[in-house]
Task: structure prediction
Amino acid sequence: MQSTGQFIKPPVAPIQRRFVSAAVPFGGMLLAALLAACGGESTAPPAQTTATPPSAPEAPAVVAPSVPAEMSVEQLLRQAQQALADGRRFQPPGNNAVEYYLRIIELSEQAPVQSEPESKRRLFDALSDQSPADTARAAIRDLVPLGLMRVEGALSESNWDEAEQVLQALRVTGQAAETVARLQQRLATAREAERQARLAAAQPRPVAAPVQPTITPPPASRAEPAPPATASTAAPSSTVPSGPSAAAVNPPTTTTPPVTSAPPPSVVEAPPQVARVEPRLLSSVAPRYPNQALRKRIEGFVEVRFVVQTDGSVDDVEVVAAEPSGWFEREAIQAARRWRFEPLAEPQPLQRVVTFRLD
Result:
């Protein structure tokens, strides 16, 4: 029993040692292979990750040129203020206050946070209670009534180019669209009237040449019925009734004279072309500012339609549009009734814009 116990004990340790010693190099080789494989895969991704990031930020840089990068919001605000100081509210195109303010709104809507550095935005917020976009919108609301008044003045002075430029700036703002459309129609009709006036001044020269002398030849055709064969045949047997036959021949010759040939030349007449031109305003009365609107510092405008009588007075005044409504209509009507225009040959309807602005 002891010999068997001694026989079984010794071989166990060597066998285990051999198994462990053999397993160690095999495990080490397997671990090394795994590490090598993992190491090979881990070295490749860094090269790919470092290559991809530069391409990602370059995409917005391509879109940025659509917005003028040479002018920031602060620079646009300064340019708009300078344009107001110089009187460039609506003109010239591309360099006026309205377009600068519209560009500020566009930049703010596209990138409200990235348009300016954080420090500059904090400084601007500290100096102003409104954002740049709100400031621009408020400025445009104040400029629209002035633009409408400017168009009215340009139309009364027949300055079509100035009226067109101001209307173009007003159309872009999107405010007072109905009034702007009516002013645009007035501009179109005024230009057409001027064009027709030029044509009318040039047309009377060729029309003034009547062709009346050519109607004189018809008497030769009347001589043909004079020698009829009936009169000559009646002559041989006319021993006694020769007198009545001559009397019978004479009446037709008296009825055929140029009574029918005279009317045609009188029909040729030159058609008169009348070009309607707006009468000139001789006396303008400023409207009274409503007390409630003055206390609340509300500004706006009213578009009125009326009829200019032959003596230049104004009648039938009515409101076409008002912004804001319910504040300035009564004062605008009272002021329009006191306007005086140059006398006219016949009554003429007109439209005007009355502005209410705090100085």
